[in-house]
C-alpha cells in the first residue's frame, strides 16, 4: 500500500487538522490545509479531522465549504472522516444540536458522544483486517458510534460488544477513533491507497 505521492486536502476550519497533515507528509504525500472551496480542486482526496462537529458545521456553511464538499463527495472524491469528521460524513446525526447539519454521503446514522460522560475517552486494540493482520491501537475521544449502516456500507471494525467504529462506502471512509495521534499510520496508508 502507499503508491505514488498524492495531494491530500485536510479540512482546516477547526479540529486536529495539523496532526493529519503531519501523517500524510510523513508518508511521502503532501497534506494541504483546505479552507476555501477552490482549494478542493487541487487535491486527490480529503480528510475531515476530529474536533467538534457542531463548530465544523457552522464554519463550513459560513465559508461556503459545505456545498463545495458535498459537491466533491457527489463527484466521487475520496474522503476520510475521523471522529467529528465521521459525523460530518454521516447522512443522519443522532444527538445533534438543534439545526446541526452534516455533509452526508455515508448511508449511516451516527450518534454523537455515544460513550457518555463517564467514559469520555478510552483506548483499545481493534482487529481491522482491511488495514493488516495486527490489531490497531485505537484512541476514542468523546467519540461517535455508528448505530445503523445502509446496505452499501461495509463495516471495517467494531468493538467487542459489536458497536461499529469504522466503515467504508465507495470512496468514503469513516472512523470513530483517531489514527492520526497514535503513530500507527496504517489507516492513512489505506486511505492513500484508494486515491485515484
Ligand atoms: N474527538 C472528536 O472529534 C469529538 C467529536 C465531538 N464529540 C463532536 O460531536 O463533534
Brief synopsis:
The protein is α/β, with parallel strands linked by helices. The protein contains five helices and twelve strands. A hairpin with a 5-residue loop joins strand 10 and strand 11 (164-169).
Can you put this structure into words, describing what you see?
The chain has one domain (7-193): Class I glutamine amidotransferase (GATase) domain (Rossmann fold). Helices cover 23% and strands 31% of the residues. It has five helices and twelve strands. Strand 10 (154-158) and strand 11 form a beta hairpin. It is globular, with a radius of gyration of 15 Å. The mean pLDDT is 95. Glutamine binds next to helix 4. Pfam families: SNO (PF01174). L-glutamine binds at residues 51-53, 112, 141-142. Belongs to the glutaminase PdxT/SNO family. It catalyses: aldehydo-D-ribose 5-phosphate + D-glyceraldehyde 3-phosphate + L-glutamine = pyridoxal 5'-phosphate + L-glutamate + phosphate + 3 H2O + H(+); L-glutamine + H2O = L-glutamate + NH4(+).
Secondary structure: elements and pairs:
Layout: E1 7-11, H1 17-26, E2 30-34, E3 45-48, H2 53-62, H3 65-75, E4 79-82, H4 84-89, E5 90-94, E6 106-111, E7 121-126, E8 136-141, E9 145-149, E10 154-158, E11 164-169, E12 172-175, H5 186-193
The structure holds glutamine.
